[in-house]
Design a protein that fits this description.
The protein has nine helices and no strands. By secondary structure, it is an all-alpha fold. It has a domain of 134 residues: Orthogonal Bundle (Tetracycline Repressor, domain 2). Helix 1 packs across helix 6 and helix 4 runs antiparallel to helix 5. The longest helix is centred in the middle third of the chain and has 26 residues. The N and C termini lie far apart (75 Å). The N terminus is likely disordered. It holds the Pfam family TetR_C_6. Keywords: DNA-binding, Repressor, Transcription, Transcription regulation. This is TetR family transcriptional regulator. GO terms for molecular function: DNA-binding transcription factor activity; transcription cis-regulatory region binding.
């Protein structure tokens, strides 16, 4: 009876995931200027030809990596909301403050996002992904705010304001973690949520 092979060939989805993870690391370390097919192949430990087998060039690979990072962040937010239980305000707090903890509050993630942001003005596909991501974040915020009783006319502006607040606190927390803690960022965010959800109902 023939013995089974000592290894299994990587499945296509696993290989693609490896290449996307390698791209994220290269972008975080080198920026878009250093993100070449060769650099990513070296990072992933594969040949440049294999990168081309799975992705139609560096632009497609960067776009797929952006989508993957977006998905990772969305999963972390969803998990935080689910863990908060059924109380509407607890769910809103969890969604807003999840950005101040790993895996979202991360210097490496900041570096990767910075690389993506640098492409927004020069690549329509990245700009579209950026717009869709932020629209989805604001839409989720509007839904959570509505569950807390905020009237419909105020939802859009409140979601924009909270998004800007979260982005600013997240950015400073990643850049200068010694300036304030994640708990302090959460306290600041919750105080703004208190003001928004307790007035003008």
């Amino acid at each position: 009876m023939t013995s089974p092979p000592a290894f299994r060939r990587s499945e296509p989805d696993a290989r693609r995931a490896d290449l996307i993870a390698a791209t994220a690391r290269v972008l975080a370390r080198e920026g878009t200027g250093g993100a070449s097919v060769r650099a990513i192949a070296v990072e992933a430990g594969v040949s440049p030809g294999l990168v081309g087998h799975y992705f139609a060039g560096i632009d497609a690979l960067v776009a797929a990596t952006y989508a993957h990072v977006e998905h990772t962040v969305s999963e972390a937010l969803d998990a935080a909301v689910a863990a908060a239980g059924p109380d509407p305000r607890a769910r809103l707090d969890a969604f807003v403050t999840a950005s101040f903890s790993p895996p979202i509050a991360s210097g490496e993630l900041l570096a990767t996002w910075t690389a993506f942001w640098s492409l927004v003005r020069s690549r329509d596909d990245i700009a579209r992904q950026h717009d869709e991501q932020y629209a989805a974040f604001r839409a989720r915020l509007e839904s959570l705010l509505a569950e807390c009783g905020l009237p419909a006319p105020r939802l859009r502006h409140a979601a924009i304001a909270i998004t800007a607040l979260v982005d600013g606190l997240w950015l400073e927390l990643c850049l200068s973690p010694q300036a304030f803690s994640a708990d302090e960022a959460g306290t600041i965010a919750r105080s703004v949520l208190d003001a928004l959800t307790s007035s003008g109902r």
